Amino acid sequence: MxxxxxxxxxxxxxxxxxxxxxxxxxxxxxxxxxxEEKLSLALSTYELGKLFLLGIKPDGRLSVFERNFSRCMGxxxxxxxxxxxxxxxxxxFEQFLNPEEPVDGYDARYVPVTGWTTGDIDLHDIQLGPEGxxxxxxxxxCLAMLSVTxxxxxxxxxxxxxxxxxxxxxxxxxxAMRDGVPAYATSVSRTNIHDGWRQHRVNGGVVLDIxxxxxxxxxxxxxxxxxxxxxxxxxxxxxxxxxGYVDGETGRFEATCFLPGFARGMSFxxxxxxxxxxxxxxxxxxxxxxPLAERLEREGxxxxxxxxxxxxxxxxxxxxxxxxxxxxxxxxxxxxxGIVRPSAIGFKTNEIHHTVRIDTQQSSLRLRSREPRTAVRxxxxxxxx
Length: 385
What we know:
single chain; mainly beta; 6-stranded antiparallel sheet
């Protein structure tokens, strides 16, 4: 595959807070595709602890903006920004700029306006519902919501889990929403014992129908990132490096394409799936013995850390953005339509001290202020005197 360097060799991106050793390459038409679709991307990489924002510079080259958030994982796009799950907190980012009036060449500036402390609950996927974010608390084997008085509020557990326990019994990890309501979840196994899922990574994975608690598909290898799009339930079979969908009648997983890496994190734009793939972590039990290793060897390729853009109509990987160097894994990715070149505010520079946006929407709360009238009366008295 022909690649074009995006001039990122061993240098930190504009707006980064420290030097990083990585290079990013794009396939020939990846940046053209992003520019034509007026689309940018946000992605999380939890080992490195970075939020990346990928867009297009005025000269057509890839724009890369990064911020540091410890073990950032799940991402969810909102109407005016996105949500990010990190090691022990959940952050809501809002877009402060008018896209028609770029500042310093950026048409979006995402600001972490609100944070919730959840503690280390190993929060994986996060999606938005009408009452706020719904997320997978993997350590506690449940779906949950934010709470104003506690770390989180459990709302659903798989039927084979008998109680809440901080034991990661089945490695519940993925969540798909339908009309703002949790519809499907992915789990590496149906075990009900501490760390029991590790013995079932090869073919013990399931997709669960949340309203009924029944198994929608089984026999999967480490399924992740279930998503409903264009009338299908799409799933990443990470242990085999496959994108596919679940047949609604048979429950069979139908593979659409092979992805040369540990696939995890998926977003959609029109008829394209935008997917993150990672290097399997060598020496860790989670990745040992997976069918992915055998498939990579059979195909004669090494695993990569990349964003793959897959045409759902053909199964072709039409575009790629490849990371080399210290960036070796991706957890989640979301498309940011309508944004060409995004940026974000972090906590380690003075920039956050001086970023102010005033909400000018009229409030339903009516308050009478006496100060202006008092000032007018005082001025009149002084004038008369």
